From TrEMBL, chain A:
Cofactor(s), by name: Mg(2+)
GO biological process, one term: response to cold
Family matches, as Gene3D superfamilies: Decaprenyl diphosphate synthase-like
Name by which UniProt lists this protein: Alkyl transferase
Membership in a protein family: Belongs to the UPP synthase family.
Enzyme Commission numbers on file: 2.5.1.-
């Protein structure tokens, strides 16, 4: 990202950008490459775009890297994805520490390979003190799972006497969602690449007033210019959060 | 000293000119993008008009088998114009859509429910339809939804599950896996009156491009299409959006 883009963006910037990284397989297919190469290209793009977002002043970036439904993909592809996560978490640790980016991985960790789970814990521990830049990576995440685990968490607190039943309300619920880790839990802008116009079980609760942007470009091709276009589009929106103007 | 001061002054001027230049560049980018959207909007309007006139044979018949449930989100400003909502429903009936969920965050459409049901021919309340109902001809089942059916309903349903959990024989041994599943929450939502009809397609009418708090639990795999303002809605655009949906292939993450 050039200095000019960074310095020109004085207008309102989204504090929290969520991205559904769609299109890796189609990108690879168009180029006669294998699926794993598509995912590798997607992983590189992910980190480049994260750097651009933070440079533009975004506080939180959430990436839908692996959904609960993705476990149904061919075993080789799933193994490839898990190996990619491990590879890039290890490789990018110096970058996270240098740029003081807090890493948070949300989702159901029960099915994640143990080696990856351990690495995730290491990365989270190493970056937990950083403030101002949050990179949330959703692995084995689903919006319905998020709502259910929040309900379960509240139930456990009631059972343990930490809260009363009367204390359970929307605010209490939002404090239990997996996005509680961020100062800005509700995305301002949600980008889903590849032209599909769905949120596919991502941030169901959190996206009530999120601006939805569905560019047709495939994820590995979503670069600096495409992100600038998304930001320009976002800055032209008039957000009301359900209220009258 | 003087030369240092001069250098600092010069540097400050260069910085200010640079910032001004960057600001102008950013505004220029905005203008270019805005122009692109204006041109795109004009092109869509022309295409929509052509579709409405039946000039594009592709839209002359649409297979609605995939579209079991359509939802419409109406912006709070637009929802005052019930006549426009009625017109939209009449268009949907003409196209052959059988089930429509109408949402506005404040529940104003719920208050106009009787008027809408009286004015839209063949319309009936979804909740009054029996299980053996088979939509035929120009009939359309309507559901009226508001924000109270979203988070508030989930909280009420969660409370039902919580009560069951606390009343279970060994809550101290149970981490909740047997009480907090998707099917349990679906059932509890039904108890509190949230019917959980999952829309295949969601059309958003208004200046905003968000779903404005439409019941989150229902939106998992719903196609979301922004249609512009209700005031300037076009039959051709509606037909095009529905036609496009029928061609969408979902792999549901697999």
């Amino acid at each position: 990202m050039g200095e000019k883009e960074k310095r020109a963006s004085n207008r309102k910037m989204p504090k929290h950008v969520a991205v559904i990284l769609d299109g890796n397989r189609r990108w690879a297919e168009k180029r006669g490459l294998g699926t794993s190469e598509g995912h590798e290209a997607g992983a590189r793009r992910l980190l480049e775009n994260a750097k651009d977002c933070f440079a533009m002043g975004t506080n939180t970036i959430s990436l839908f890297a692996f959904s609960t439904e993705n476990w149904e993909r061919p075993e080789d592809e799933v193994k490839c994805l898990m190996a990619l996560f491990e590879k890039h978490f290890r490789a990018e640790m110096p970058f996270f520490q240098r740029d003081k980016i807090k890493i948070l991985v949300i989702g159901n960790r029960a099915k994640i390979p143990e080696s990856l789970r351990g690495l995730i814990e290491e990365v989270e521990e190493a970056t937990k003190s950083y403030e101002g830049k949050n990179l949330i990576i959703a692995i084995d995440y689903s919006g319905r799972f998020d709502i259910l685990q929040a309900c379960k968490s509240l139930a456990t607190k009631v059972k343990d006497g930490l809260i009363q039943v009367e204390d359970i309300n929307e605010e209490a619920m939002e404090k239990e969602l997996l996005t509680k880790c961020s100062e800005f839990p509700n995305p301002d802008l949600l980008i889903r690449t590849s032209g599909e116009q769905r949120i596919s079980n991502f941030f169901l609760w959190q996206s009530a007033y999120t601006e939805l942007y569905f560019p047709t470009v495939l994820w590995p091709d979503f670069g600096e210019a495409e992100y600038l276009e998304a930001l320009t589009w976002y800055q032209q929106r008039q957000r009301r959060f359900g209220r009258r103007v | 000293m003087d030369s240092n001061q001069s250098m600092r002054l010069l540097s400050s001027w260069i910085g200010q000119i640079g910032d001004l230049g960057l600001n102008l560049l950013w505004r220029f980018i905005h203008i270019v993008v805005s122009l692109w959207y204006i041109v795109s909007g004009i092109s869509e309007a022309i295409e929509s008009y052509a579709i409405s006139l039946g000039l594009n044979k592709k839209y002359s018949s649409i297979d609605l088998e995939k579209l079991r449930c359509l939802a419409v989100v109406v912006d709070i400003e637009a929802v005052q114009d019930v006549a426009k909502v009625v017109e939209l429903l009449q268009w949907l009936t003409t196209i052959g859509v059988k089930q429509v969920g109408l949402f506005d965050s404040q529940g104003l459409l719920k208050k106009s429910k009787d008027l809408i049901l009286e004015t839209v021919p063949g319309s009936m309340l979804l909740e009054e339809i029996g299980k053996d109902f088979s939509p035929d001809g120009k009939r359309i089942a309507l559901e009226f939804i508001s924000s109270s059916d979203n988070k508030e309903a989930v909280m009420k349903a969660a409370n039902i599950l919580l009560q069951r959990y606390l009343k279970s024989s060994h809550p101290e041994n149970d981490q909740g896996e047997n009480f907090f599943t998707e099917s349990h929450l679906n059932e509890a939502l039904g108890v509190v009156g949230e019917n959980v009809h999952v829309p295949d397609l969601l059309l958003v009418y208004g200046p905003i491009r968000s779903h404005l708090g439409f019941p989150a639990w229902r939106l998992r795999y719903t196609e979301i299409v922004h249609m512009g303002t209700l005031k300037y809605m076009r039959y051709g655009s509606l037909l095009k959006a529905i036609h496009k949906f029928t061609g969408v292939h979902q792999n549901y993450g697999t």
